[in-house]
Amino acid sequence: MTGLLVVAASGLAREVLAVESQLGRYPRIAVLDDDRTLWGSELAGHPVVGGIDLVAEYPDHDVLVCAGRGQTRRALVERLSEHGVGASRYPTCIHPQVLVPESCRIDAGCVVLGGVVMTADVRLSAHVVVMPHVTLTHDDVVDEFATLCAGVQLGGGVRIGPMAYLGMSSSVREGRNVGPEAVLGMGAALTRHLPAGETWVGVPARRSSTAVEVER
């Protein structure tokens, strides 16, 4: 591919663009966002050229979806598939200082930022976002569209479900599961399984009746 399209003019997009400036993989980078007020502006020095439907005009560009919220990333990937964007168009964006052991696997569309540590047999499924200084230990599995915020710590054999969201500096005890679309609050320590769709906070983490704000 001769260029890169970054989808969603977000804070995550600026972080991805900072990594791409170090990698130097693409001679041309443009940003797509449906917010018309952004069209014609720049994001980190790269043009916001128009809405997401313009992806059809860039068949020679890779695509990275940079919405912070997993549900939003999934919706955007579904829209892009309607324009013929398949898995082969989604690269990974991995900070150049992150060491990925041979036993670890990172699928298409994932973003892995600086300071992330992976030990052995870690699996990141498609379109997972791993923010700075996350630690993933042996046999951790992170399913599609999940988000691990800065400083998250996972013990061995943890399973993170699709579109789950783990807040900054939260931690999960070894062998525990975080269900699909569940939220673990900032600084929480999870010692039990977290059911699908629930929000847990605190130390040790317990179910919360108050919604936790999630970056969009």
Could you characterize the architecture of this molecule?
The protein is of the alpha/beta class. It contains two helices and 23 strands. The chain has helices at residues 11-23, 70-82; strands at 3-7, 28-32, 42-43, 46-50, 61-65, 93-94, 105-106, 111-112, 117-118, 123-124, 129-130, 135-136, 141-142, 147-148, 153-154, 159-160, 165-166, 171-172, 177-178, 183-184, 189-190, 199-201, 206-207. The strands form four sheets. An eight-stranded mixed beta sheet has the order 6-8-11-14-17-20-22-23, covered by helices on one side. It has a five-stranded mixed beta sheet with strand order 3-4-2-1-5. A five-stranded parallel beta sheet has the order 7-10-13-16-19, with no helix packed on it. The mean pLDDT is 96.
Secondary-structure blueprint of this entry?
Blueprint: E1 3-7, H1 11-23, E2 28-32, E3 42-43, E4 46-50, E5 61-65, H2 70-82, E6 93-94, E7 105-106, E8 111-112, E9 117-118, E10 123-124, E11 129-130, E12 135-136, E13 141-142, E14 147-148, E15 153-154, E16 159-160, E17 165-166, E18 171-172, E19 177-178, E20 183-184, E21 189-190, E22 199-201, E23 206-207
Parallel strand pairs: 1-2, 1-5, 2-4, 6-8, 7-10, 8-11, 9-12, 10-13, 11-14, 12-15, 13-16, 14-17, 15-18, 16-19, 17-20, 18-21, 20-22
Antiparallel strand pairs: 3-4, 22-23
**Mean model confidence by pLDDT:** 96
β-strand amount: 25-35%
The termini sit apart by 28 Å
CATH architecture of the largest domain: 3 Solenoid
* Total domain modules: 2
Order of neighbouring strands in the sheet with most strands: 6-8-11-14-17-20-22-23
Which spans of ≥5 residues are poorly predicted at pLDDT below 50? Answer: none
